[in-house]
## 1
Amino acid sequence: MKTPIRVAVTGAAGQIGYSLLFRIASGAMFGPDQPVILQLIEVPFEKALKALEGVAMELDDCAFPLLKGMVLTSDPKVGFKDANWALLVGAKPRGPGMERADLLKDNGKIFTAMGEIIDTVAADDARVAVVGNPANTNCMIAASKAKRLPPERFTAMVRLDQNRAQAQLAKKAGTDLTAVKDIYIYGNHSPSMFPAFAHATIGGRPAAEVIGDDAWLRDGFLSTVGKRGAAIIAARGLSSAASAANALVDHVRSLVTPGAVHSVAVKSNGAYGFDPAVWAGLPVRTTTPGSYEILTGYAMDDFAKSKLAATNRELVEERSFVAELIG
Ligand code: NAD
Ligand code: LMR
């Protein structure tokens, strides 16, 4: 039996938390032979902590063989102590009519404190995955507070967007989802994101050739994927939760699986013309568990370049809104 890893989750009693924790404890995130200790962090209010106790009771009641312990706390110094993975979900979700960037002032502050505390108390090999919106910029804020952990340990989630794009392409082509490959997300987790359809294949052929509808790819496809979060909020009255939790399972699972190629928001270091200091969705290949290289070899045509420039502009603008929180 392997040594258990410590997985800290913020916002553990929230909507995403309720779908996520059971998947982690079942082995879906770290594999069927990797025991875990869940370190569950909530805000210091009775209602949230009571709800967290209820979630922990349900986790007990699942009798998951891989779940080797739980810590329930409202103190991030306790919750992130020795954590190997910190999953930063806890933050305000947007409501109808809001853009994710509208959350920046409220949520940004949460990530300064988390970045500092994780850097101080987490394990030496700690990895951080940010889900709370606006995820790219929150991740940049948290990473900017770290002195011990290097920036590449901080990733934000665009995997939900990749999964959405894959599903939409399969639907349009009338094929099985598994036939769709190589669709990666560039830029911000916002409507400006760019799912680079020119590199996607369906059944081994270029997706554009199979679909035969360039106008849809450039317009309907991009806007359906980019505005999917808002469409779910409009329909459900609440932001996506089960699909977000599922995407986080995929995000981490791919990051611990050498050879996996997938979309992750990481410090761009200038790839594809992004500002070097913003966190942009990019295709990466996992090298060793928890580490990755950015894949820089995808050719971009003029249409793609204009989309990359637009999503980069938005990331740079978001950074300017929170300049006082960075560093
Ligand atoms: P929710 O309101 O149901 O749950 C959030 C939980 O976080 C609450 O229980 C709250 O008490 C807790 N929380 C707030 N601040 C905290 C802090 N400082 N420390 C610890 N816990 C804290 O919201 P949700 O639906 O679970 O969504 C959470 C976040 O994830 C939102 O910002 C949402 O917009 C975002 N989200 C991102 C994606 C993505 O693809 N990146 C997808 C879906 C949702
Ligand atoms: C999503 O993409 O579903 C989430 O980021 C929630 C939101 O606000 O859109």
## 2
Amino acid sequence: MSRKNIVLIGFMGSGKSMVAKRLAKILKRDMVSLDGLVEAKEGRSVKQIFEESGEAYFRNREKEAVREAAGKEFLVIDCGGGVVLDPQNIVKLKANGILIYLSATPETIRERVKNKKGRPLLNVKDPQKRIDELLKERTPLYAQADYTVVTDKKTVKQVGEEIIHLLTVGASLP
Ligand code: S3P
């Protein structure tokens, strides 16, 4: 397996954070969460940043976090669901990383984010409608990944194993 970063992208609730932690543990790599980097620099949560400074401000901070993480190697990078909105983020992450899209149906996502309050974009009257709209807009962007792993009805362990398999098989290709 190469020293390139393993970069997990996908919608909120697709399991990126948990899978990233698992992969980092198994592969003995450091794990970096882009949201975590932004929160540490700002000293406030993503939710607070959205509320107090707006989405555009957050996207700029997120872009800086991408630059920082993509400049390193041998990491597992857990990206926020909206990282793909900026094409430059994709270019940077791909330059030194293998992008893996964790996909999930709208129903799976709704179920997984149901009782979580930290997601400002889903803090609306009709979260399901919002999920559908955002997914429609973003699915073509997520498709720029090197690999897609379907996560519906799978455990974190299963998804992690699938990714490791993909990366191992991929590494042995000419
Ligand atoms: C966002 C996803 C969140 C976080 C922010 C915006 C998005 O991260 O970056 O709330 O635009 O999809 P997770 O995907 O880890 O929930």
